């Protein structure tokens, strides 16, 4: 599945990552590459937790919807593919 990431930095060194389609799913890294890599793990763990708790995966929205969100202004946008289908097929 494709997930949109919103990356922010205050100093150009460390980056915070928000996954807007997964409320409460955050990550960070000391570099842009590390922040993106850590986001894979955060998404994987978040989806696994949702499925373990019997929750549904929220609807994934297009990038343009997130770009229009003023709370995410100034973000660097990245779209990544994360293999979470195994959790969707093994729900409790």
UniProtKB/TrEMBL annotation:
<dbReference type="Pfam" id="PF15919">
    <property type="entry name" value="HicB_lk_antitox"/>
</dbReference>
<dbReference type="InterPro" id="IPR031807">
    <property type="entry name" value="HicB-like"/>
</dbReference>
<protein>
    <recommendedName>
        <fullName>HicB-like antitoxin of toxin-antitoxin system domain-containing protein</fullName>
    </recommendedName>
</protein>
<dbReference type="InterPro" id="IPR035069">
    <property type="entry name" value="TTHA1013/TTHA0281-like"/>
</dbReference>
<feature type="domain" description="HicB-like antitoxin of toxin-antitoxin system">
    <location>
        <begin position="4"/>
        <end position="88"/>
    </location>
</feature>
<dbReference type="InterPro" id="IPR051404">
    <property type="entry name" value="TA_system_antitoxin"/>
</dbReference>
